Amino acid sequence: MDRGSNVTWSSPFTITCLALVIPAIGLFLMVELKYASNPLAPARIIFDQSMMAAYFCNFFSMAGWFGILFYIPLYYQAVDDVSASQAGLRLLPAIVCA
User: Fold this and answer.
1) Do residues 76 and 86 touch, judged by C-beta distance below 8 A?
2) Are the beta carbons of 77 and 87 closer than 8 angstroms?
3) Rounded to whole angstroms, what are the CA distances from 16 to 3, 21, 36?
C-alpha cells in the first residue's frame, strides 16, 4: 500500500496520476455547479467573498501550523540534541492546547 518511498516523480505512474487529477477536478466542478440537483455545497456559498476570505485565512494558518509541527521537533533534535521521542514530547503541550 505504501508506494511513496519507491516511486519517483518521473515515473509513468506518477505522471499519469497527476495528469488525470486536473480533468477529474474539472469534471467534478462542472457536474457540481451545472448539473447536480443537490450539490455538496451551493456555488453561492462557496464563492461568497467573505467565505473566500475565511478559506484563505484558514489555508495560511493551517500551513503555518503544519510547518511548526514539522520544523520545531527538527530544531529540538538539532539544537538541543534530544531524541525524536523527546522532541515529540516537547511538542505535546502545543498540540493538546491548540
Assistant:
1) yes
2) yes
3) 15, 9, 28
Residue reference for cell 499519469: 16
For the chain, how are helix, strand and coil distributed in percent, rounded to 5? 75, 0, 25
pLDDT tens digits, 2-58: 666 777 888 898 899 999 999 999 999 999 989 988 988 888 888 899 999 999 999
What H or E segment, with its residue span, contains residue 67? helix 49-79
What pLDDT, on the 0 to 100 scale, is given for residue 2? 64
- Beta strand residue intervals within the chain, DSSP E: none
Cβ pair 3, 9 in contact under 8 A = no
Note the pTM of the prediction, 2 decimals. 0.58
Residues found in the chain: 98
